[in-house]
Specification:
Structural class: alpha+beta
Largest sheet: 4 strands, antiparallel
Distance between the termini: 12 Å
Strand content: 25-35%
Shape: elongated
Order of helices and strands: EHHEEEEHEEHH
Number of helices: 5
Length: 178
């Protein structure tokens, strides 16, 4: 079954179509999830073992510390993950990131000379990996923790290196655009 591309964002030109939009792999959220569990256990333990002499400000201080730890170790990484997107269109690769200050990097597909992928043991177990896109003029562009990296690698290769006959649509690409 073919994946349906998301709705067309406003930064996409009229002559291009979104092929795939993705965040980094969910493994980026493992540490924030572990931190959340540890914060909850620590909060419960601290409140349960709080001496009576610490009333009434002790519990509030523990809650404030737990709140700060939650913001720094859980919420901020999740917001960073959510705001970090890669959008692959029929003409370019768009990387957008940032929570308060958004930055954008557009890489035309015609500028990419080589695509290499790397998958360590953990990446293979989790189904993700890193793509290295080499251009003629710049340092390589690294796409780290790409979910389904092999599918994205093949899709990028098809978009960049295949040339369908004039007046026809590439059947491989057509399944993503329908």
């Amino acid at each position: 079954m073919a994946r349906r591309p998301p709705r067309t964002p406003r930064h996409i030109g009229s002559d291009e179509q979104v092929v795939r939009r993705m965040h980094t792999h969910l493994k980026a959220l493992l540490w924030p999830a572990l931190a959340l569990v540890l914060i909850a256990v620590g909060l419960g333990t601290a409140l349960a073992m709080m001496p009576v002499e610490a009333e009434p400000w002790g519990p509030w201080a523990v809650l404030a510390l737990a709140g700060l730890l939650f913001l720094a170790l859980c919420l901020l990484p999740v917001l960073r993950w959510w705001s970090n997107t890669w959008t692959l269109t029929t003409r370019r690769l768009i990387h957008r990131q940032g929570i308060l200050t958004r930055t954008s990097h557009d890489l035309p597909l015609t500028r990419i000379n080589d695509i290499a992928s790397e998958r360590g043991l953990i990446d293979r177990l989790l189904g993700c990996g890193t793509l290295k896109l080499t251009t003629a003029a710049e340092d390589p562009v690294w796409m780290r923790d790409v979910p389904h990296v092999e599918d994205v690698h093949v899709l990028l290769s098809e978009l960049i290196f295949s040339t369908p006959a004039p007046g026809t649509q590439d059947p491989y690409l057509q399944e993503y655009l329908d």
